[in-house]
Design brief:
Layout: E1 3-7, H1 11-23, E2 27-31, H2 34-41, E3 48-52, H3 60-70, E4 75-81, H4 85-91, E5 98-102, H5 106-121, E6 127-130, E7 133-136, E8 141-144, E9 147-149, H6 153-164, E10 169-170, H7 172-180, H8 190-202, E11 207-210, E12 214-217
Parallel strand pairs: 1-2, 1-3, 3-4, 4-5
Antiparallel strand pairs: 6-7, 7-8, 8-9, 10-12, 11-12
Helix pairs in contact: 2-3, 6-7, 6-8
Bound molecules: calcium ion (CA).
């Protein structure tokens, strides 16, 4: 049974989410403050954390930063108000596994939880390869021509998206939706920024700009 920590100070939301998750067979714990959330999250007793950004004591960003200082693997889905979504995307340096903007549909939250738990639990050979790039979905490592490349969580997700669709043009909107989980333009250049990061690490000729259309892995 997967164990989920619900870090949320609004009782109306946490009880709704907890009830829904239990009905799906997950075991849950609710933490209503930042310090409690952090203590539970780093206890090693949870498979996934739903982390509200606006928490009393220590806010969600800081909780995430401290979780990542000791655990780089734990799946963390940030819950954020839609109005601060652009800040959330731009402000996090790839430490979160995913985002959900409030209000969210419970079914969508469940779907994302399933994906993140599946990613975390994958064993055996789970690699994607293309033209000398090898992405290991289990260890979350990328090697380019045999050399290990250090990627942040967000850079990894972006690389994964490109490797799953080699030689295809991916638009900014597609990348935003699939990598950042947002279905509207938050008015930031976050995709371009992260493509730049990836180019710096993989070689600038690996990702081509297709004017007016998006990007392509070559
Ligand atoms: Ca809150």
């Amino acid at each position: 049974m997967s164990r989920i920590l619900v870090a949320e100070d609004e009782e109306r939301i946490s009880s709704f989410v907890e009830k829904g998750l239990r009905a799906e067979g997950y075991s849950t714990t609710v933490a209503a403050t930042g310090p409690d959330a952090l203590a539970f999250a780093i206890s090693g007793n949870y498979d996934l954390v739903l982390l509200d950004v606006g928490l009393p004591g220590i806010d969600g960003y800081e909780v995430l930063r401290r979780i990542r200082a000791s655990d780089t693997q734990l799946a963390v889905i940030m819950l954020t108000a839609r109005s601060s979504l652009a800040d959330t995307i731009a402000g996090l340096d790839g430490g979160a596994s995913d985002y959900m903007s409030k209000p969210f549909k419970f079914d969508e939250l469940l779907a994302r939880i399933r994906v993140r738990l599946r990613d975390a639990g994958q064993v055996g050979s789970t690699t994607i390869e293309h033209a000398g790039l090898v992405l290991d979905l289990r260890t979350r490592r990328l090697t380019a021509a045999g050399r290990t490349v250090d990627l942040s969580a967000r850079e990894f997700s972006l690389a994964e998206e490109f490797l799953r669709h080699p030689d295809q043009v991916l638009s900014r909107e597609q990348l935003l939706s699939r990598v950042w989980g947002v279905d509207f333009d938050p008015g930031s250049n976050v995709v371009d920024v992260y493509v730049r990061y990836l180019r710096a690490k993989l070689g600038s000729d690996r990702i081509e700009t297709v004017r007016g259309a998006g990007y392509r892995l070559v």
